[in-house]
Give the backbone structure.
Amino acid sequence: MKTIIVTGCAGFIGWKVSEKLLERGYAVIGIDNMNDYYDPMLKEWRLSRLKGHEGFIFYNLDISDREKVKSLLRPDSIERLTGSYPDVIINLAARAGVRASVENPWVYLDTNYLGTLNLLEICKEFGIKRFVLASTSSIYGLNRTPFREEDRTDNPLAPYSATKKAAEVLCYTYHYLYGINIAIPRYFTVYGPAGRPDMSYFKFIKNIERGIPIPVYGDGRQKRDFTYIDDIAEGTIRCMNLEGYNIINLGNDNPVELMYVINLIEKNLGKRASIEWLGMHSADVPATWADIEKARDLLRWSPTVRIEDGISMTIDWFRGNRDLVLGLRD
């Protein structure tokens, strides 16, 4: 059974990537520090789904803790548990949130940059030759859409995207010096069942259901390239087999206005939204849009879920887990 290390396994994307790998017969060493950036109850819910799979081993660990990372991921420790040592690390552990990073940038540096450095050192020291790093569309800043991997990304608008850019550059250094194969998917507005409660669509669903005004920044006409979680997870897994150093957009290639998404949620819930209009945040951009020709070419990947279907499936999950969602701390 091939073993893969997945960090951030209780996070939104890490959970779905881990689930798909386990369903395909891989063993997964899952790592997560279960932090309280949002209510850990949702992380516990995701983690409970993974623990039901044979071949899943979980470590409650902060990847910014260098000594603990090295101790737990030593070859003799892992081989005793799984019989083989991983040849891939998928690093999905990250402190997310563009606006939140403006308020508290230090924690973003610790997880997104220092944590990545610690894992790259594990690759170097223990001979792991493949590394996948989750990155973000926010790294493109105010570039012209559609965003292409070759665009300049040295003008980030928030500490979150700045730390992700730093991690990407660090990955290149380790590829150059030590021959580690690096794949960096840049994600575009990931959504779906069991998503992050700080994301706009999740807040919209929760607030509309409770009859509470939803916060909308700007005029609601800003466009986002909403990409369904299963599509993102599939693209991430395909990144494992790439050779060299590659940065690849994973997006829906179909940006839609925020108000359109709100209207879809209203339709599926059968309720109207009350809107609290707020000023545009300085770290926000008017639009995101992924050029995905590279993903089609290298990964044979393209999105399969339309926004209309994705929102419908997300609302279905919400109905089946209503008590969990409404019980989450705001």
